[in-house]
Amino acid sequence: MAHTPTDQTPTDQTLTDQTPAPARPAAEARHPGRRAPRARAGLGLLASAVLVTGLAGCGVAAEPGADASGSAPDSSTSSGPASADPGQDVADTAVGTAAKTALPSVVTISATSGQGSGSGSGSILDEEGHILTNTHVVTLGGQTSDAELTVRTSDGTVYAATVVGTDPLSDLAVIKIDAPDLTPIQMGRSADLKVGDDAIAIGAPLGLPNTVTDGIISTLDRTIAVASSEAPRQQESGQGQGPGQGSSSGPERFRFELPGAQQSPQGEVYINVLQTDAAINPGNSGGPLVDGQGRLVGVNVAIASAGQGQGEAGNIGVGFAIPVDYAQRVAQDLIEHGEATHAVLGVSVTPEPAEVQGGDAQARTVFSDGARVHEVVADSPAAQAGLREGDVITAVGERAVIDSESLTAVVREHRVGDSAEITYLRDGAEQKAQVEFQEDTSQ
Questions:
Q1: Rounded to an integer, what distance in angstroms lies between the CA atom of residue 14 and that of residue 265?
Q2: Residue range(s) of every CATH 2.30.42.10 domain in the chain
Q3: What is the CATH number of domain 50-63+77-337?
Q4: What span, in angstroms and rounded, lies between the C-alpha atoms of 272 and 229?
Q5: Is 146 among the catalytic positions?
Q6: pTM of the predicted model as reported, rounded to 2 decimal places
Q7: Where are the residues of the annotated region Disordered (predicted)?
Q8: CATH 2.40.10.120 residue spans of the chain
Q9: Which of 63, 91, 290, 396 could pair covalently with 96 via S-S, beta carbons 3.0-4.6 A apart?
Q10: CATH superfamily label, 343-439
Q11: 374 catalytic residue (yes or no)
């Protein structure tokens, strides 16, 4: 594939399989009390045996009382995981206290269209009724731009909802309800998190609202690729890659599974996420990951699932959430302008293979250390900073760049007009340059 010089987009790679997965019935059995083993901090994902799936089916959970075809589930199916109804007693523990704080601010979202239906979760942002969730919840994984949305608040009341804005590049969306006496979620800071901190997921896994699970923050800065949830547009063929998106292959490629329907072929997007072992399942999408004080620190977005091909996805102790510091910025853009802006560096890059120490210095490896520049767009921030073809970018500010995907994700997190120091290698010597990011107008 030819290099695409419109963004810091990875190149020379092929799209992963995007075969859909069936929606899972909300009442399908799980094993109460059984915890998945904690993921050790710093461990990478299992190579080709692990997939990442968007959580709105495994992505959007099937609507309660129906399987993927709309049939009622077998009455002999055992109940799902216990949920923490706000009216029930909550334990006087750290997790219980955090859950009691956050639960009134968590909602369940239903999306219905001619292409299908599903449910996800969300967090109330303010008393005006703005709710933060995932784009793939609102668009049913990219199938529709006009799903009928309803929201059930923690007290059981159901409200009609409208879309304020969606941002496929971050997989974040804001919707709105007109409701009285709303309790906005308390905001934390993902920048203050440390590996090992408490992480509590709240939402409606498998369609079961007000469900609370707990774990820890396993990793602070993981880059994952998921299929774009951009809804089809009129007068658009829908073929090929969306703007600013890359395609990918390799040992740790991730797939976004859909609720029983084909993915709109919009390509992939790269996002930086927190990794947690708190149990996250279909239907948790868009819901909050909170800290030990019940403050929002992440927006649940995807899970890893063992195996490849079609099949159901569920918790194996490797879940991902979009950091709240980034999510807040995108949400603010969506509320104020109806769309979000993203920074661009203006280079076309590929992963730089890591240098192998000892043994055969020419040994092939799947590991990479940086993003090699193949093309620099004229008058772009990269060009103005003096970057050239052949440079290897290794950091943006304090954030390490290990491959082309992480460069894409890190740059997009910046606001347009932000300045940052770029660290790069030229002919083996480390150099630094200041860049001022411009807006990605290719969106």
A1: 13
A2: 343-439
A3: 2.40.10.120
A4: 16
A5: no
A6: 0.75
A7: 1-40, 65-90, 227-257
A8: 50-63+77-337
A9: 91
A10: PDZ domain (2.30.42.10)
A11: no
